[in-house]
Queue: 2 jobs
Job 1
Amino acid sequence: MGSETTGSHPSVRWSAKEQQILSAALEILRDRGPASVNIESVAAVSGVAKSTIYRRFSNRDELIASALSSVTAVPVIPPGLDIEGQLRWAALRCRDGVEHVLGLGGVTGVLVDQDPQFSATIRSMLVPWIALVRDILARGAASGRFRSDLDVDVALNFVLGSSLGEFLRTGSASDEWTDRVLRMLMIMLRPAVAEDDAAAAISPS
């Protein structure tokens, strides 16, 4: 789940006033969690009148869903990347989603299922990203770049879960951390004959 600076841009174009409202909702989500996002709190943070917010968003669920969709994009891999580069790109975008979209408040909200509707929204937004990483891993195995007995689900969770774990542990997951994760992952993914070269397969862009 990447930010709007990656992948293809969201199809909805928001007005400046709507962006002000949605930015406030995301700020509250990252800092306090989904349960704290409501029309009153967004009005207080954004400085926009509650009546104006209600004219644009009928309830908090619509507001939260719109806020999330305003900073997420359908994943589209940039052209020219090899299979390892595609995996690194996807891992960085997932990292950005955890750190810059959800933040600690949003992550905690999902982990404790603070708001079931919010959790369902996040899981639905993850679907295309999970499918993308699955496809990268499957193509790598089919092409011989990755081992033929690859457990796609385990590798998928390694990619998605590593940034989440580092974010919870330290509050941030740097590009350098992602590259360390991918170097370790490549050691596990590469066929046995290529293990000696696997550690050098991923280098920062």
Job 2
Amino acid sequence: MAATERFADQLPPGRLQRLIGGITRNHHNPEYAQGITRFAVVGLACLYFYATHHADIARVLTLYLVFVLAMLVWLVVAPQQNHLRRTLGLIGDVGVPTACLMALDAETGAPFVALYLWVITGYGIRFGVRYLLAAAMLSALGFGLVVTAMALLQMYGRIFNGPLNSRWAGPQTPPDMQIVSREFLAAAPLLVVLLILGVYPAPIMD
């Protein structure tokens, strides 16, 4: 690594030198390790959901994977500390598991609950107490949205639909009752806005 850094320093000034220098020096930046870990986890999740035929969830995770790659490129181009980049990463790390939990059944979505604890611990260790508290609040808000949505959906279903129809009682959801990708993507921006306003409500409260 030291030889690569010396090579980057010997290049003529310009974009190439800044790019290679950013790549070789980012191993000291905690955002770099976080970005690589995030890319690996989201990539494995995409493969898993494609393999288990949860195509809509896999598409959403694929879009998030593109976002993760864009964050890594941003980090390489501008390796200095950037609170906006960290905040966007935190919103994505909490918002995407929350959206997946709302779209999946309890058994399939259970592993996403553990991601909340992982995100809280990771941000606290890497970036300090402020990010630990922010991650904890966002995770509590996200999980609260999931629990509230599930309770409301069950209540509305019992009030408006009556007893459970026998054709919906099996382990597989009928095709006409499944959430399609365009419905999921339409709800995702609203979820992100709710997360932001839950942490910083001043734009609508002042």
